[in-house]
Structure formats: C-alpha cells, structure tokens
C-alpha cells in the first residue's frame, strides 16, 4: 500500500480499511483533539470542515510527516478521559495567571523624598511628574522611573594653576539635587545617572577658571571669597541642565612641595621677627621705667632735703615713724626682744625727750 492510495482512500471516506496503519491512528487522534478543544473554547459554535484545505488531507499529511521524523512503531496514543474539564481548568489557570500578573505589576510606590515619571511604549516619556504615594500603571505597556530628589553630596578634586603659576589641588564638596518639575527633560537628555554625566566636567572647568584669577597666597587668605565665586558660576552652569546646587564649599587646598616649604620658612621668619620686635619693645619699656624711677627718686630726695632744710624736725618725725614700725613688728613676734632707744633709731638725748630732764 503506497501513500497515494492511502490519501485517495481517505478522501473517499473509507478510513476503516487502514486502521492497522499507525499514521492514520495518529492523524485521527490529532483531529479529535482539535475538535474537542474547539468545542471547549466555543461551546455554542459547531466545528465545520473547511473546504480548503481538507482536514482529512491535512491530518493525513501530519501523520506522514511525523512518521518520517520519529520512530513511532511502538508508540500508543491513549485517549484522555475528561478532556473538557481539563481544558476548562487550563483556561481558568491561564486567566488567573494573567490576573495575578496584572495585579502585581499595575501598582508601584513612590517613597518619601522621591518623584516618579512614567515611560509608555506607545507615546514615550510622559510629561507628568508623580509625587509620593501609590500609583497605577498599565503592565508591560508602562514602567515607572523613580528619581531621588533629596540633596546628595559629591566630592570632587581638581588640580589647577594659580595666577603666579603655582599648582594647587582643590577638594570641592557639592550638594546637588534634580529639579522635580524638569524630571522628564532630565530623563530624555541625561538619563538616570545625570550627576556623573554633568558634574565632573562643569566642576573642573569652573575651578580652573576661578583659581587662575588668584595668587596662591590669596587662595589661602581669601578662601571664602573664592568659594562664593565658585558657587555662583557652578549654580548658573548646573541650572542649564536642570540641576539645583544647595551648597558649595572648599574642603582642602594642597600646594606643591616647594611652595609649602617656602610658606613654612616665611612663617618661621615672621615669628622670629615678631619675637625680636617684642624684645626691643620690652627693652625700651624697661629703659623708660628706669628713667622714670630715677627721676622719681631724685625728685623725692630733693623734696626731702628741702623739707629738712626748712624744718629740722622733719627728720625727727621720720625717725619716730620708723621706730614705731620696728616696735610693732617686734611686738608681734613670738620671741621677745629688748632694744635700747639707739637701736630704734632714736637718740633721746638729742631729742631732749628723756624723763626727768628739762
């Protein structure tokens, strides 16, 4: 029996003559499965045999093709009992899986300090910016892009030349954040890593332009003014890319080894000059003090001499005052000492103060 006879007999409607053929059995089972699946999915519609192509010829061709590619001599295709219920369960599982996928991928959260934009596969990036909270998207067709809009620090170091041709290594700390209202534009032009694409280039260029206007010593003494100028220029440059700068500060200034040694030597010389100046000023002050002291003593001696010449009793009064102080000191001492009047600087005979004499 050849293949042409099998196909011809199948067209005539006598498939019972070839039940022994394994190819025909597979074809019949495939056709039955197709009819059963069609009835399950469309219970109100009847399966009609299309005129072109003929299902019998198509199923027979399938059987012949399978028999050529696989060894089916010992294969048996069992009939599956309850095919309609299995198909219904399969359909229910597919629908449930699609529902779970849609529910899991249709909601997204925007945390505090963040903003979101939505990319649509049909229209591209939407212009709306979504605030904090939970939002809805169409699964697969849309996906959220979330940005952190809080200020973040960035440390950048740059080596530049000053006006007096000294190489200076400057460390800069910058606080940046994206402008929330311009997030769609930032995503279209710069993407999500906008800081890495923009900040290094504009910071290096700004530092070189500003440092070249100052001498190395001015960078140290006028550090605050240099920082303000750098901040002003960087703020204007970053605004062109929709990036806001909250703070700019210089964290470090490092000069070359020779310049650092020269600065240290200059500081040492300045300290020595200040020390010598202090010594000179101290000597002058001591000299002035000695002159003033000598003038005071001379004036005091002159006044005392004038007082003695005017009134000889002045010296006697001074002796009495001295004797009073000596007597007061001895009386307060623990050991008692007896002194005559001469030891107390008192000459009673000359002062004519002895008792019993007139």
From TrEMBL:
Species in which this protein is naturally found: Canavalia gladiata
Compartment(s) = Mitochondrion inner membrane
Membrane-related topology note: Single-pass type II membrane protein
Instruction: Give the keywords, sorted.
Output: Membrane, Mitochondrion, Mitochondrion inner membrane, Signal-anchor, Transmembrane
**Any single biological process term in GO:** mitochondrion organization
Q: What is the designated name of this protein?
A: Band 7 domain-containing protein
Which protein family is named in the record? Belongs to the prohibitin family.
Q: Which Pfam families match?
A: Band_7 (PF01145)
Q: Which residues form the Band domain?
A: 106-267
Q: Which Gene3D superfamilies match?
A: Band 7 domain (3.30.479.30)
Look up the record and report any one GO term of the cellular component aspect: mitochondrial inner membrane
User: Quaternary form?
Assistant: Component of a prohibitin multimeric complex in mitochondrial membranes.
InterPro entries in the cross-refs: Band_7, Band_7/SPFH_dom_sf, Prohibitin
By its UniProt entry, which SUPFAM superfamilies does this protein fall under? Answer: Band 7/SPFH domain
Q: What is its main location?
A: mitochondrion
Indicate whether Aminoacyl-tRNA synthetase appears among the record's keywords: no
